[in-house]
Design a protein that fits this description.
The protein contains 6 helices and no strands. The protein is mostly helical. Helix 4 packs antiparallel against helix 5.
């Protein structure tokens, strides 16, 4: 696939996320096998997959409001704590609603 055709949700992934997806596909979707490859437990791999799913869903929602998507992405990647993210989003929405009036 040419880089120009790379879907936006894939372009936003980190290198380790892409490596995880590759292992998952090569393991025919077996989280148990992927856990063995990484030397971790099944719940750990399941959590990793769930976070990856959240990242992909978040990327799909970016067009709706890029600022909120950025805040959520930072929180998901643990660069920003969840409580701070909630406050920032709430204040942003208040400001945005005031502008619309």
């Amino acid at each position: 696939m040419a880089i120009e055709l790379l879907p936006e949700w894939m372009a936003g992934l980190e290198e380790e996320d892409v490596a995880f997806i590759k292992k998952f596909i090569l393991a025919s979707g077996s989280l148990k096998e992927v856990a063995g490859q990484y030397g971790v437990t099944y719940p750990t791999v399941r959590l990793r997959l769930d976070r990856l799913i959240q990242k992909i869903k978040l990327t799909e929602n970016t067009a709706a409001d890029p600022y909120i998507a950025t805040i959520k992405r930072l929180a998901m990647n643990e660069k920003l704590d969840l409580d701070t993210a909630k406050v920032l989003i709430a204040e942003y929405k208040k400001t945005k609603n005031m502008e619309e009036l």
